[in-house]
Amino acid sequence: MSLRHPERDQIRIESVLSALGNPVRLAVIRVLDAGGEHNCTSVLGIVGVPAKSTMTHHWRVLRDSGVIWQQPSGRENLLSLRREDLDARYPGLLDAILAGVVGDEALEASRTPLPSAT
Amino acid sequence: MSLRHPERDQIRIESVLSALGNPVRLAVIRVLDAGGEHNCTSVLGIVGVPAKSTMTHHWRVLRDSGVIWQQPSGRENLLSLRREDLDARYPGLLDAILAGVVGDEALEASRTPLPSAT
């Protein structure tokens, strides 16, 4: 059975922002944006979230807001970023967000004290 | 007493997105982005939210995430968008979001059936 996804025209900016206003879900879209074929288990491994049950909620939020496609394939769901739809509806938004995540990370890293040499 | 705001470097993308993932708060930043001096009451009037108490929560979310300045002035709080900080940390993000709100509105309007001429 295939899962319900909004059409491109049914996507709304507040739902996209709300879906992406979460560190785990931001980590997921970074993985998907880097390309390659991913299913829920493989993304879970990269993002490093231990509980599969926690992710069920995150997949639903990302899918319902129109950020990802989640297509059943055998026993798994294949995941992909709806970049074409998001870029068409909100030009520059996804790139600004992904760049923001990288920028935040660089800022955090620059603040982390180096381990002492003892 | 002045309210607590994050420094520019303390702003995080997930908090900004989460703060803006809400139609009332998106309406608020549109008002503030259009310029002019605003206090809570004047924004409330434009956005059309009836309960002042509901807004207390929204102001806090916008302030804590680093999206707005909320500065006490007499009996009121003056509000302004932290555009300089947001543009410095996340180039293009705010413009993409504001354009998205306008785009969504245009899409909704194009779908609303015209009133019948009877």
Structure description:
The structure is a homodimer of 118-residue chains. Chain A has 118 residues and is mostly helical. The first copy, chain A, has a single domain, classed as Arc Repressor Mutant, subunit A (Orthogonal Bundle). Chain A contains 6 helices and 3 strands; from the N terminus they run ααβααββαα. Chain A has a 3-stranded antiparallel beta sheet. In chain A, α1 (13-20) runs antiparallel to α4 (52-64). The model of chain A has no long low-confidence stretch (mean pLDDT 91). The A-B interface holds A 9, 12-23, 26, 89-93, 95-97, 99-101, 103-104, 107 and B 9, 12-23, 26, 89-93, 95-97, 99-101, 103-104, 107.
What's the arrangement of secondary structure elements?
Two copies of one chain form a homodimer.
Chain A: H1 13-20, H2 23-33, E1 38-39, H3 40-47, H4 52-64, E2 68-73, E3 76-81, H5 83-89, H6 93-111
Antiparallel strand pairs in A: 1-3, 2-3
Helix pairs in contact in A: 1-4, 2-3
Count of domains of chain A: 1
Order of helices and strands of chain A: HHEHHEEHH
CATH class of chain A: Mainly Alpha
Major sheet description of chain A: 3 strands, antiparallel
Helix content of chain A: 55-70%
CATH superfamily of chain A: Winged helix-like DNA-binding domain superfamily/Winged helix DNA-binding domain
Helical/strand content category of chain A = mainly alpha
Strand order of the largest sheet of chain A: 1-3-2
CATH fold name of chain A = Arc Repressor Mutant, subunit A
Instruction: Show the largest interface.
Output: A-B, 28 and 28 residues
